[in-house]
Amino acid sequence: MSSNIRVRFAPSPTGHLHVGNVRTAIFNWLFVRKAGGQFVIRIEDTDIVRSEERFEGLIYEDLRWLGLQWEEAPDVGGPYSPYRQSDRLNLYREKALKLVGNQHAYHCFCSEAELERQAEKAKRAGVTWKYPGTCQTLAGEEVRQKLDRGDASVIRLKVRQGPIRFRDLVHGDMEFSSDVISEPILIRSNGSPTYNYAVVVDDALMQITHVIRGDDHLSNTPKQVLIYEAFGWTLPLFAHLSTILGSDHTRLSKRHGATSVKNLQDMGMLPEALLNYLALLGWAPSEGQSEILPLDALIQSFELERVSKSAAVFDLNKLYWINRHYLKEADRSRVLNLAIPFLRQAGLLAEVNDAIREWAGQIIEAVLPGVDHLSQIPDKAAFIFSFDPGQALKAEAVRQVLSEGKAGEVLRALNDELAKPGQEIPRDWKEIIAAVKNRTGQKGKQLFHPIRVALTGSDSGPELDKLLPIFERGSRLALPRRILCCQERVARFAAAVDANS
C-alpha cells in the first residue's frame, strides 16, 4: 500500500535523542507506516552555537538502533532536497522577499534596544507588549534608502485581523485571536530564519501532510497558520502530543536519570522494548489488547485519534517490566552477544574463547530472570566471581538461616560429602544431598537454605541446578578472577561459620 501521506521528524543536531524527541519520531513513524506513506527526516540546524555535524550522525544511529527507517533525509537525499536547514538559507530569504513583494511582509528597522524599552515600559504598566507595527507604514522609497545604506533590518509578517483556526487531531478544533499575536519576525537581521517561518516553508515545500509534534509547539501554530495563509498554501493536519513528565510530575529532564536513547541503550535496554514502551506514552492500544505489542502489531494498532491530551509519565519501572519480557523472549545468542561486553567492562571476563562464551551463556541464563536490563548482570553475577563468606555472614537474612533447625550440622555434613574422593558435581549432586539429609534428618527449607547460603553467600538467587555447573566449570577456566568450585565454597563458608561461633 502506498499513499501521499508524508510526515517529518525534524530534530536539532545538539546531542543524542532524548525520550521526548524519540517518542515524537516513533508516533510519526507508526502513523506513516500504517498509512503506507513517506517518513522524512529534516535536520533543523539553524542554532549555530549548539548544532554540530557529529550530532546529526548520532541522531541517525539512535533511530537505526530503534529500528526506524526513513525514505528521505540528508544522508539519503530525496525529491525535496536539501533536507538540512543550513543548506536552505537562500530559499528562506527568497520566499520572505516574495511575501514583502506581495505586501504580506515588510522590512522592520526598529533596533533591539528600542523594542526592549517598549517591552519594559509595557511590563511596568502591566500590559502585554506586542510590536506596534511602526515600520509597516514606511514609504517604499524610505525603505529602499535604508536598505541601500545597509541599515540593519528584519523581515516581519503582517498579522491579519480575525480569528485563527486550525484542526488538531489530538485537541480538536482550535481557535486563537490575532489580537494577541505580535507581528512575527521571519528573517533576522543576520539573514537567518526564525523557527516558525523556516518550519512552514520546509513543511509546505516538502509536501508534509501531517505535522505530528510535541504540544510545546501548540502556541506556535497560530503564527505558522498565518504564514501558510500569506503564501496561499494548504494547511497540513496537526497533531500535538502531550508533554512527558518525570515520576515527580514535573517536565522530564536529566535530573530524572536516563532520559536519552543512548543512556538507555548503554543500560542494556532492548530497542524493541524501548520502542514498545515509548509508544505507550500518551497513546493506548484498543480495549482488550496487551501492552506488549511487537512492531507489526504496533503499526496496525496505532491511531492518532487514540492519543491522549493528558501528560504522560515516564515510568522506568514500567519500562523495566517491558524490557524483562523482551529479554525473556529474545534469542539467547543475541542476548549473550549483548551481555558479554558488560561482563568485560566489569573486569569479570577478558578474552572470550568458545569455552568461556559457552560458560558465560550459562551465567546469563541463570541470572537473567532477576535483571531489569543487561547492565545489571555483573552485579547479579558478582557472587560467582567473588565469594566472601565473612561478608555474607554480616547479612541478617543469612544469620537467620543459620539460626534455624540444624543448619550447622547441614553445613558440616555437606562439607564432608563434598570432600569425599571421586565426587563429581553436578552428576552426583542428588546423591550428595540425599546423604546430607540422611545424616542430619533435615528436609525442605531447613535442608536447602543452609546449602544455598553455603554455596552463594545469600538466602536467595538463581536456581542451584543452574549454578552448580557454573561453579564447577568456571573453576577450570582461565579467567581474570579464579572461580571457586562447590567444595571450596562450602569449605570456606563452614570455616567462617565456625570462626564466628
What would you say this structure looks like, in words?
With 501 residues, this protein is mainly alpha-helical. The protein has 3 domains: 1-74 and 242-329, HUPs (Rossmann fold); 88-241, Rossmann fold, CATH 3.40.50; 385-499, Arc Repressor Mutant, subunit A. It contains 22 helices and 11 strands. Strands 3-4-7 form a 3-stranded antiparallel β-sheet. A two-stranded parallel sheet has the order 1-2. A hairpin with a 3-residue loop joins strand 5 (163-168) and strand 6 (172-177). Helix 6 (195-205) packs across helix 7. The protein starts with 5 loop residues before the first strand and ends with a helix. The model has no long low-confidence stretch (mean pLDDT 94).
Give the topology, please.
Layout: E1 6-9, H1 19-35, E2 38-41, H2 53-66, H3 89-101, E3 105-108, H4 112-124, H5 140-149, E4 154-157, E5 163-168, E6 172-177, E7 185-187, H6 195-205, E8 210-214, H7 221-231, E9 237-241, E10 244-245, H8 261-266, H9 271-279, H10 295-301, E11 312-313, H11 316-329, H12 332-345, H13 354-367, H14 377-380, H15 382-385, H16 389-392, H17 396-403, H18 407-419, H19 429-440, H20 445-456, H21 464-474, H22 486-499
Parallel strand pairs: 1-2, 8-9, 10-11
Antiparallel strand pairs: 3-4, 4-7, 5-6
Helix pairs in contact: 6-7, 9-11, 12-13, 13-21, 18-19, 18-20, 18-22, 20-22
